[in-house]
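Amino acids appear as letters; backbone shape is given numerically. Here is one record.
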Amino acid sequence: MTSAAPLALSEPERLPEGLPEGTIWPALHTLVLMNRQLRGDADPARLSRFADDRWDLNDGIFEDHARSQSLNFEIVPEPLRLAAKYYIWQLINHPKARTLRRSSRGRMALHTIEIFFYGALQHVLKWFASQGITEFCQITDELLWNYLDALDADSVATHKRYRRITEVRRLWIQRDLLPFFLRLPEAPPWDGEDTQALLERTRGDRENRTKRIGEHTMQALLGWAVRFLEDFSEDILTAWDEYRTLLARRPEHTRGKRRQRHSGELQADVAAYIDRLRRRGESLPGTRRDDGTLGVAWRHIASQLNCAGSFVITTSGRMIAQSGLPIGEDVYLATPVTAELDGEPWHPRIPFDEAPRLARLLSTACFIVVAYLSGARVGEVLNLRRGCVRLDETTGLWLMEGLYFKGAEDEDGNKIPEGTVREEPWVVIEVVAQAVKILERLHESHLLFANRLKPVKQTPGKEPKRRGEARSDRIIAEDLAKFATWVNERCRQTGRKDSIPPDPGGAIAPSRFRRTLAWFIRRKPRGLIAASVQYGHTYTRMLQGYAGSYEAGFLDDYAFEDWLFRMEGIAEDERRLLEGEHVSGPAADAYRYRVQAASREFAGRVLASERHARDLLGDPLLQIHHGEGMTCVLNPVVAACQLRGSADDPMVTPDTDDCRPNCQCLARTDRDITVLHERADELTEIVADPLAPPIRHTREQHELDRLRTIIERHQRGAQQ
């Protein structure tokens, strides 16, 4: 190991030895984001400099929902802190800094750099510093092997070992961009061995561990969200408009802006106000003081009358004080509650301070509908803009346009930080368009899911670090929890049984919506989600546009759920065959072959990714689709039904609701025959009814004869 003094933070007198051509060397006051695109609202005076120990990355992050992001180098041991800063600065700014996933092109996103800095790199640097390392050039092959032993001795979890090993490889792969003192040995770390071979174990966190939201939880959550949209929204919007109007009229907000009333005009307004309260049997707006007594809410009355707060000491104020009206314990809005729940008003009279909460709940309900029923990524939903939904008059489809960030790259493979407008819009259903229209009425922000529904006055120089205006993932998760709490409290108060049950998988995070939607579409295609909208209908709409695009990602989630569903079906089919279940129909032999062959081929197989599942679904062995009283052993070439998708698409499925009796893909198991028996019994009763119209009698008799023939052939084959 070469001995060297720790690097010192000072203005360099000359460039470091071995600095590659094209590499810029930062000075103390060099901008951290020197070679990164900056937001339009970036303040040059607030930009971080190389000498700072905390680097603010927010001015280079364009996702409006992103949390505040920075790099704190104080967590790096002092002997390696400056080396780490030089290294990270090059990753941020060098145009040829490479990723590990595609080492030939592309530069890491700032968010990615922050994740690996805190998640793995700091731990690697701490261990190196504990071994006396002050410059990366001192790291030897022997030391790297010792590091593996140290990970084992410290019982570091497998997925964390993978990440820390990755950071060593990342440092090595950038060596051509760095001066000598920042370079690892020329030979690849650990002789270039694969991480899995080094650790002799598979990384478990590569699997998609996003948990589906439980069926009962999701149904109740979505049902209440749609109820907010369709039943409660007008009351909430009206109350919210009144709240904002009264807030803008507060005396402290209208000094010098209010028009002067003519003599006696205010007294007339006060008299009308008092008379209105008397006719309605209402009290004066009031608040309870700290000593327990009630006092008139003069500021609220001033907002209602649109007058100065000083009116309380005038004749007009004395008219109110001497009106003899009782003083209430709260301040209520004039907005009437018109919607009902179980024949009763859905909400008591709305207090002034309750309007913001209800508006936020309505916004959250809109998020549930838009995020869940579009299948869009959370970040894409939170960055939706006003006017993003339109009806295509030609196709009759509702289209939702917006930005996408994941996979948005320029011609050099670098991430486009401000995102890119999606070429193919999402195809959504009408209730999603309804949610967007409500959001556009809730506030004036250009973002649909603004972090604040009302503007907040900020003190110059004290603006928040995160300049994004959209709600973050964390905030929207908190809003979802508050939504469920409100619903459950209202159910408790009214004795309703449709509360939102706790989810077995834990807190309801917005990232779980896509996987849950894929599960419902695959498992519950006829299930009602709300307002008589079926998942089958949602599937059809989405697959016509957004979800049909592989780049969108939802199709991979759906493929993964489809894979799980088919493998469960194959396992059950094989069990039934082994127990002697009989199969009839033109595709009976193909059914038996595919079940047995698929079980041998796919049982116990581990999927590397959701996209891998989509590829495997194209295997003919898995083309077994159970319907109502029938089983389709799909061969797209001879299928008589209208297929969903093209014949060469691995995601093609038959329309089992439109099965044709003469189709060569038909097979019938004993389970199917049981269903046909039940249907035949129903038809027997109809046919035996002497009051049945002749046309219906003839039609049902024909269907009954057909079913009896199928049942008899199946039973005859089972006896042979």
Remarks:
- Residues 580-719 form one domain.
- The chain has 20 helices and 17 strands.
